[in-house]
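Exercise: predict the structure of this protein bound to 2-phosphoglycolic acid.
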Amino acid sequence: MNRKYRKTIIAGNWKMNMLASDVKKFSDELKPQITTAKYAAIVVCVPHVMIPAAKKAFRDSRVAIGAQNLSEHENGAYTGEVSASQLADLGVDYVIIGHSERRQYNGDTDIIVNKKVHAALEAGIHPILCVGESETQRELGITLELIALQVKTALANVPQSKMRRIVIAYEPIWAIGTGKTATAEEAGKVCMEIRSIIRGLYGAKTARSVTIQYGGSMNEKNSRELLAQPDIDGGLIGGASLAPIKFSDIIKSSNQG
Ligand code: PGA
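Solution:
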């Protein structure tokens, strides 16, 4: 982390877990735990149908609500899709875009990811742009090339003035939900490379201000070490974000430096 230049953001990704009726209990347990964690911005990304319940449960707290996907289209005949303006209308502040599970199961290509980034920015929602390599790609030694391609395509035609709204999450696919984490040094190095890609595109000042998270089996035991890396400015947390105590321990571990 480097709080002098950029925000630390700890975001939970509930994926397709929990029920709307679970949200109040979760928030009642989480809220008293986070009063001492002053430095990190906190986000909980819930399934679309739970957004109103989550907004209500967290209304008197500093926890922002995020979504896990949005349509690249503005409106129209797209049965089952949810638009950026519909999310903004419900008070959603962040949206995960290009998560590897959506790239794998729902056909989100880099070009579609780019369209979704623009849709979110247009509606004033912060994209949490996910990038990351598979195990095979890592073994082939093409991690950095692949990530450069993902980042550059996702940010195509995004003006410098909008870059302050973008969060990037480095999530190596082989570390998601597997219990295998990149070592803090490995993860920190890729996040540093991502920052240097941003520097190449937008210059040093912008690169310095972008929040870059790590995601992939981050938990209350490894978060302190990961967050101590200078280029890791937060986490995107799946499994461990479903338990209020684990999630709050991760949030508290950002109280360093
Ligand atoms: P995990 O998921 O923490 O369960 O590995 C992270 C993510 O997919 O965002």
